[in-house]
TrEMBL record, chain A:
<dbReference type="GO" id="GO:0030288">
    <property type="term" value="C:outer membrane-bounded periplasmic space"/>
</dbReference>
<dbReference type="GO" id="GO:0030975">
    <property type="term" value="F:thiamine binding"/>
</dbReference>
<dbReference type="GO" id="GO:0015888">
    <property type="term" value="P:thiamine transport"/>
</dbReference>
<keyword id="KW-0732">Signal</keyword>
<dbReference type="InterPro" id="IPR026045">
    <property type="entry name" value="Ferric-bd"/>
</dbReference>
<dbReference type="Pfam" id="PF13343">
    <property type="entry name" value="SBP_bac_6"/>
</dbReference>
<feature type="signal peptide">
    <location>
        <begin position="1"/>
        <end position="29"/>
    </location>
</feature>
UniProtKB/TrEMBL annotation, chain B:
<feature type="domain" description="ABC transmembrane type-1">
    <location>
        <begin position="515"/>
        <end position="705"/>
    </location>
</feature>
<feature type="transmembrane region" description="Helical">
    <location>
        <begin position="641"/>
        <end position="664"/>
    </location>
</feature>
<keyword id="KW-0812">Transmembrane</keyword>
<feature type="transmembrane region" description="Helical">
    <location>
        <begin position="297"/>
        <end position="324"/>
    </location>
</feature>
<feature type="transmembrane region" description="Helical">
    <location>
        <begin position="519"/>
        <end position="541"/>
    </location>
</feature>
<feature type="transmembrane region" description="Helical">
    <location>
        <begin position="79"/>
        <end position="101"/>
    </location>
</feature>
<dbReference type="GO" id="GO:0055085">
    <property type="term" value="P:transmembrane transport"/>
</dbReference>
Automatic annotation (TrEMBL), chain C:
<dbReference type="Pfam" id="PF08402">
    <property type="entry name" value="TOBE_2"/>
</dbReference>
<dbReference type="InterPro" id="IPR050093">
    <property type="entry name" value="ABC_SmlMolc_Importer"/>
</dbReference>
<dbReference type="InterPro" id="IPR008995">
    <property type="entry name" value="Mo/tungstate-bd_C_term_dom"/>
</dbReference>
<dbReference type="GO" id="GO:0005524">
    <property type="term" value="F:ATP binding"/>
</dbReference>
<dbReference type="InterPro" id="IPR003593">
    <property type="entry name" value="AAA+_ATPase"/>
</dbReference>
<dbReference type="InterPro" id="IPR027417">
    <property type="entry name" value="P-loop_NTPase"/>
</dbReference>
<dbReference type="GO" id="GO:0022857">
    <property type="term" value="F:transmembrane transporter activity"/>
</dbReference>
Length: 347, 729, 360
């Protein structure tokens, strides 16, 4: 009898060992460059293919929203598994830099880069650099505005117009980097108290604080709401997809995001990571955005700007202080104030 | 019996002296990296590379040899195994956690013993094998001392299940919960914990007396209570219709129960938006016909309540149908012979006997609603609930894992509180009437009022569900649903395109990669979940051991913790030595297995309690061991439970999102994560096409599993159900 | 292929089984000779089933030693003991045919399939079920299922064959037949069998020896005649065969006769049937119901006047409920032709046979 039992125990043990072996099997990610990608999936795929073709280094690309990416990098901090974080708003990249999750790097393309891209590099103490920019703006449903004979919004003040009662959507800054950029922008335009005064009034017109930054764009395109506050390239994306929407940027001035790239501190494939970093800043690498129908403005002056991209000449940008509004304390302070004064006020 | 102790002692030595102790897949050390193969074994590394802390393991290993060398039935034999195994296990774990990549993990140890010149990597094959060997030596020692009726298999199984649960449930959950008291400087502070737990935006009650929103806890509790009530009511109505009326289309009802379970997250929410959103089909029709102005009522409590009720009613139905069927008709007949009218019978006999079922159905609805993440995410509007708050506390702009952990503790507390209340209400009353005695009664008809109410509740709801799913399937074939309803195969081609290239078939569609990974993960985790779950159920039902009820409680823990918390906790716990799993497929599989295990356990416990214990005992007295008894007697009789666990774990592996979204690595993208990406982008067409394909795929797999596992002997087993219940009273 | 016999003895030495605080079996010692059929008899909860399960290895003794065939098996699990068991519920595997059920123990023990099938057929033949091999248990009647369970236990040629209330699910007629069949089979094969029942008639019918248990301890061990004729205490006297327990006084013993005073009368009882260590003084007189004879004449001889409270006609005999100065009595009389009607007062006399003396 015990012979049979042993046989079974043996098989049981073998199964266990097999499971352990499976668990410990060298993931093929070992040879690949692991990149967290913060833009739309089409673009992630396009740049991965282009880089692989150029360098012969295979890339494993994972699309993560900025928050998810930062959460993952933090959790991995003791023992990073990611090599490069590419794309997504510059703000969390700065946070990562502040927390020492990323490492400094200089690029041969520095001379060709737009000033805002270099400013990101400076503010992060070299740990991050801009690869594209997107302006904060409005997206509105052309058909429905026409039907109701409402003028499209052109300024921040327009959003307070009574026609837009319950017709504005903006993300919750506690959840979305886009909305935090908007909050910080308003504070820089109107001063902090002025901004909160404005937001309190806006609160009457807002029907929903969405959780994702780009959600207002798809709500507007389906007619669920008339106006949304978003990064304009998200709106353009809906327009290109055939929805009756258009975008505008506020006359009082607006903020922007600097899509950035950072090399993770402690990467085990530093050379490959550097190669990707350089490729992401090269005209060739930046051209992949337009190929993937993404309409941000590239940071390399020599890269072709897609015709659909917002013309930055026409936009009134504020001098966004990433240094100040990127720090954890300032962020926390503004967000708690927003939470107690705006969010809890009946919405 | 001694063979297997000897085997494990030998395997322990093999793991220690012959196999690489550290994992080669994990992070490699810069100082004195261990050699490959034999040279990397703990013995050689400990001697040659100066990792002296591995060498004390020799003592318990020698103790094992001593035990095996002793004559049979020597009284020292079990003691040596027990003490040696336990000491070995303990030392391996302690040194693993104490010494990390760069030496001591805790500054206190460095101060005490002086700094270490080098660290060590994550456990590898050798460490895993040796620890397993130590574990089975320990349990073998226990069995030798007469615990577990002297049964080594049972003792080993309990040890294995306990260790896995400790490793894959307690350890990660402990990591994340301890961060609730994170003071910000890396230490633990009770004050920080208290501040987080009592934050006003969690508990405030402003909505009662002014136009401000209430704390998120109240929102969650209110939503969960409503969902629990509605799903229970609907489930009861469906069960009464199915069992106690002459309703014919029972196949339809069955389908209704399966559909929401195999629906990927977000799909119902999307369909509801497209029907009831401000520009939804129904909304526009109402505006055209009745002049009701379109509004956004669907965003917020009503929408979430609607989708959750849609999603969880089938589960309540499954619980209630068992209860309604289980009421012995002769009891009701007895009531009638005592001159009770139909209505009085229903009120005084039928209803009171259904009460435990009602409590169970409510509890399940309540907890599912608390843990639900997808529906509030899409439809919640400004109605915050705990599960989404936790998610955004982790990934949102505030990035506060401590707050997430605090909210996680509160959510866990709510779930456990609900359990406790249910237990208290039901007490130890048992209303089970399925006994060994055949019940020849015919269930009486329902009183007219109840019947009408049941039909009036159940049928419109069923029609509504089917319309919703019809729209989902249809939506995948439209150009741009809601705007341009011309038919197209574009989305399916986009997702599942196949072309012939020079080298044969090219999987050109965008969905293939994630689909293949998903199927692989689901296919591997389903049998593992079923195995672990049924094994645990076997221990709970068939064995008696100290601390059993605590053990049972802890196995349910991972069910009550929201997926997001689990996902983060897995990264925190398994990203560095001694257990390093991030980036592998194993972490996905383990997470899914231990998250879905409770359901598998419940299915197993329910099924196993129906099998008379004398069947196993007779197998034992006939000379079969526990393993053989399980294989030859219990498993064949458990086929329905096995099918249920396999199906459930397979489907859950495919549809789960919140836990795995943190664990998917570039190599291992999962279907749901991909679909969520498409939804974010507003690409509903592809998302819905992909979801429809998944629904069809899961339907096919369910059919296949039933064919392979479930029905092999059906031709001769149709009358067997009776024999199963041959339990003497 | 035939079924051989490996009958062995069983011995319990000071065996105790505790569940937490509760003691199910308390310091029990006995030994069973090879080839005997011994019954464990007692009311529900007396520990008889626990004792049986400890022989099987389904329960582990908390302390004490259990020997089978002279070997210490106290710590050996059920699987490793050469003991088989017939369960109250039969415990036939519902997903296996009758033949597969019977061959089960052989197959898991490593016997070749064909040999096992052959032996299973022999086993089924032995219990008179040849030809039923391909049926499923659910297709058999209760009695047939019981036979399958016996065959399944027999084919392993166990050292000890255990029966756990095997007949309790059968109707009265079938129960008698099965009981005889089991006894025949046991005697033909010379099996050591331990048989649990709470039915004293069944126990008397089949056993070589009976172990009467009460409240976790052994009340008395003996042959059926021993227990019936010479119960050691009031429990055994009442439990086996039933008895009217009457307060009495042992006033003297000698010349092979013990004198017992009941009320005003003095009864002679054979001294051999009275425990030797029983001191003079207060005792209980245990009178079998059939030892009470009713006579119509009143007040003569040393009878006791009784009033018939209730008279029940049972075909083969009458049952009487009596009221008397000694208390309520219960009597059985085979005279059904001229029954004593209820309400009449008659004289009851005790027959010589069927009167016993037990301590109070």
């Amino acid at each position: 009898m015990s012979g049979v039992v042993t046989g079974w125990t043996g098989r049981f043990g073998a199964g266990l060992v097999a499971l352990v072996a499976l668990a410990a099997s060298p993931a093929s990610a070992q040879e690949r460059l692991t990149v967290l990608c913060g833009v739309q999936e089409e673009w992630c795929k396009a740049i991965a293919v282009a880089f692989e073709k150029k360098s012969g280094i295979p890339v494993a690309m994972s699309r993560k929203s900025a928050g998810e990416a930062l959460a993952q990098l933090r959790a991995e901090a003791a023992n990073p598994k990611t090599d490069v974080w590419w794309g997504g708003p510059g703000d969390p990249h700065l946070q990562a830099a502040e927390e020492g999750l990323t490492q400094p790097q200089d690029s041969q393309y520095a001379k060709d880069l737009q000033p805002w891209a270099l400013s990101q590099h400076r503010q992060s103490k070299g740990r991050s650099v801009g690869i594209y920019a997107g302006a904060l703006g409005f997206v509105y449903n052309v058909e429905m505005l026409a039907k109701r004979k409402i003028e499209p919004p052109k300024c921040w003040a327009d959003l307070l117009r009574p026609e837009f009662k319950d017709e504005v959507q903006i993300a919750n800054p506690n959840a979305s980097g886009t909305a935090y950029t908007a909050l910080a922008t308003l504070v820089q335009i109107f001063g902090e108290d002025g901004a909160f005064e404005y937001l309190k009034k806006l609160n009457d017109n807002v029907n929903q604080y969405t959780k994702s930054g780009s959600a207002p764009a798809s709500a507007v395109s389906r007619g669920e709401t008339l106006v949304g506050v978003i990064f304009t390239h998200d709106g353009i994306n809906q327009k290109v997809n055939g929805f009756p929407v258009d975008v505008s940027t506020p006359c009082e001035g607006t903020g922007y995001e600097i899509g950035s790239v950072s090399i993770i501190k402690g990467t085990r494939k530093l050379d490959a990571a550097k190669a990707f970093y350089e490729f992401a800043l090269s005209p060739e690498g930046q051209a992949t955005g337009a190929q993937a129908k993404q309409f941000q403005v590239p940071s390399n002056k020599k890269a072709p700007t897609p015709p659909e991209a917002p013309n930055f000449e026409d936009i009134r940008f504020i001098d966004y202080n990433f240094q100040k509004y990127g720090t954890a304390e300032e962020r926390k302070r503004l967000l708690s104030r927003w939470d107690s004064e705006i969010k809890s006020a009946g919405k | 019996m001694r063979h297997s102790s000897a085997l494990w002692v030998v395997l322990g030595w093999v793991g220690f002296a012959l196999l690489p102790w550290f994992s080669s897949a994990a992070t490699q050390l810069s100082v004195n990296p261990p050699g490959a193969g034999l040279a990397g074994s703990a013995l050689i590394d400990g001697l040659a590379n100066g990792r002296w802390w591995l060498l004390p393991l020799l003592a318990p290993l020698v103790a094992g040899v001593g035990a095996v060398a002793l004559p049979r039935h020597h009284s020292l034999h079990p003691w040596l195994l027990l003490v040696g195994g336990a000491a070995g296990l303990l030392w391996t774990v302690v040194q693993g956690f104490a010494i990390g990549l760069n030496g001591w993990n805790w500054p206190g140890l460095a101060a005490l013993f002086g700094p270490l010149p080098q660290g060590q990597g994550a456990f590898g094959l050798g460490a895993a094998l040796t620890m397993t060997a130590f574990l089975f030596q320990t349990t073998g020692g226990f069995a030798g001392l007469g615990c577990m009726k002297g049964d080594r298999f049972t003792a080993g199984a309990i040890g294995l299940v306990l260790l896995s649960i400790a490793l894959f449930v307690f350890l990660p959950v402990g990591f994340v919960l301890s961060s609730a008291g994170d003071s910000g400087a890396g230490g633990f502070s009770p004050l920080a914990l208290w501040t987080r737990l009592t934050a006003p935006d969690i508990w405030r009650l402003n909505c009662l007396y002014e136009n401000r929103s209430c704390g998120v806890v109240w929102n969650s509790v209110f939503l969960a209570t409503m969902t629990g009530l509605l799903t229970t009511l609907l489930g009861l109505a469906f069960a009464l219709v199915a069992v106690r009326t002459g309703f014919r289309a029972k196949g339809l009802l069955r389908m209704l129960t399966v559909l929401p379970i195999i629906t990927p997250p977000f799909v119902i929410s999307l369909a509801v938006i497209l029907l009831f959103g401000r520009t939804g089909t129904v909304t526009l029709a109402l505006a055209d016909w009745f002049g009701i102005p379109p509004s956004r009522w669907i965003y917020g409590l009503p929408g979430v309540l609607l989708t959750q009720t849609l999603a969880f009613t089938p589960i309540a139905f499954l619980v209630m149908i068992g209860v309604v069927q289980g009421i012995g008709p002769s009891l009701e007949e007895a009531a009638q012979t005592l001159r009770a009218s139909l209505w009085v019978t229903f009120r005084t006999v039928t209803w009171p006997m259904m009460r435990p079922g009602v409590a169970n159905a409510f509890l399940i609805g309540f907890i599912e609603s608390l843990a639900d993440f997808g529906n509030p995410l899409i439809l919640g509007g400004n109605y915050d609930v705990l599960s989404t708050k936790i998610y955004f506390a982790v990934v949102g702009a505030q990035n506060d894992p401590g707050r997430a952990a605090a909210l996680g503790i509160i959510l866990l507390g709510l779930c456990l509180g609900a359990f406790w209340l249910q237990r208290r209400w039901l007490g130890t009353k048992s209303y089970a009437t399925v006994s060994g005695k055949g019940d020849n009664g015919v269930p009486p008809a329902l009183p007219t009022g109840v019947r009408v109410a049941a039909f009036a509740t159940a049928l419109p709801w069923a029609v509504f569900t089917f319309i919703l799913y019809g729209m989902v399937l249809f939506g995948g074939f439209t150009e741009n649903w809601g705007r341009n309803n011309s038919l197209t195969l574009r989305h399916y081609r986009n997702a599942f395109d196949l072309t012939w290239g020079e080298h044969g078939l090219i999987w050109a569609g965008r969905a293939w990669d994630s689909l293949f990974t998903t199927i692989q993960v689901a296919g591997l985790s389903a049998p593992l979940t079923a195995a672990v779950g049924l094994m645990t159920a076997y221990l709970l039902v068939r064995q008696r051991f100290a601390g059993q009820s605590a053990f049972e409680f802890f196995t349910m823990l991972s069910f009550a913790i929201p997926g997001t918390v689990i996902g983060v906790s897995y990264i925190l716990a398994f990203n560095q030595p001694p257990v390093e799993l991030t980036g592998t497929m194993a972490i996905l599989i383990l997470c899914i297995v231990f998250r879905n295990m409770p359901v598998s356990i419940r299915a197993g416990v329910a099924a196993m309690s129906q099998i008379d214990r004398s069947l196993d005992e007779s197998s034992l007295t006939l000379g079969a061991g526990n393993l053989q008894t399980i294989r030859r007697v219990i498993l064949p009789l458990l086929r329905p439970a096995i099918v249920a666990s396999l199906v459930y774990s397979f489907v859950r592996a495919i549809t789960s999102i919140s836990a795995v979204i943190f664990l998917v690595s570039p190599e291992h993208e999962l279907a749901t994560a991909y679909i969520v990406g498409r939804v974010e982008q507003g690409d509903f067409g592809l998302a819905i096409a992909y979801s429809s394909a998944l629904i069809v795929l899961m339907g096919a797999v369910i059919a296949l599993i039933q064919l392979v596992v479930g029905e092999r002997r059906i031709g001769r087993r149709t009358t067997d159900r009776l024999a199963l219940q041959e339990k003497p009273v | 292929m035939s079924i051989a016999t490996n009958a062995s003895g069983v011995e319990f030495r000071n065996v105790t089984r505790r569940y937490g605080q509760a003691v199910a079996v308390n310091d029990v010692s006995f030994s069973i000779r090879a080839g005997d059929l011994v019954t464990l008899l007692g009311p529900s909860g007396c520990g008889k089933t626990t004792t049986l399960r400890m022989i099987a290895g389904l329960e582990m003794a908390s302390s004490g030693t259990i020997l089978i065939g002279g070997k210490d098996v106290t710590r050996l699990p059920a699987t490793d003991r050469n003991v088989t068991m017939v369960f109250q519920s039969y415990a036939l595997f519902p997903h296996m045919t009758v033949a597969e059920n019977v061959a089960y123990g052989l197959v898991v023990g490593g016997m070749r399939k064909t040999d096992a099938a052959e032996k299973a057929a022999a086993g089924l033949d032995l219990v008179g079920l040849s030809g039923y091999g391909q049926r499923l248990p659910s297709e058999l009647s209760g009695g047939q299922q019981q036979r399958v369970a016996v065959a399944r236990a027999l084919v392993l040629e166990p050292e000890v064959l255990l029966f756990d209330e095997p007949l309790s699910n059968l109707d009265a007629k079938l129960r008698r037949k099965m009981r005889d069949d089991i006894r025949d089979l046991q005697q033909t094969l010379g099996l050591t069998s331990v048989y649990v029942t709470h039915d004293q008639e069944e126990a008397l019918a089949v056993s070589d020896r009976i172990i009467v248990m009460n409240r976790s301890v052994i009340a008395q061990i003996g042959s059926p005649t021993d227990l019936y004729r010479r119960p050691r205490d009031r429990f055994v006297a009442d439990f086996i065969g039933g008895a009217n327990l009457i307060e009495a006084e042992l006033i003297g013993r000698g010349d092979g006769v013990a004198a017992v005073r009941v009320g005003h009368a003095v009864l002679p009882v054979p001294d051999a049937d009275v425990a030797a260590d029983l001191p003079l003084g207060g005792v209980l007189l245990a009178v079998r119901p059939n030892a009470i004879r009713l006579r119509a004449e009143v007040g003569t001889g040393n009878g006791v006047p009784v009033t018939v409270r209730k008279a029940t006609y049972l075909g083969s005999h009458m049952e009487y409920g009596l009221t008397s100065a000694l208390g309520d009595l219960f009597a059985i009389d085979t005279n059904v032709v001229n029954p004593v009607p209820a309400g009449t007062t008659v004289t009851a006399r005790f027959a010589d046979d069927g009167v016993m003396v037990v301590p109070r």
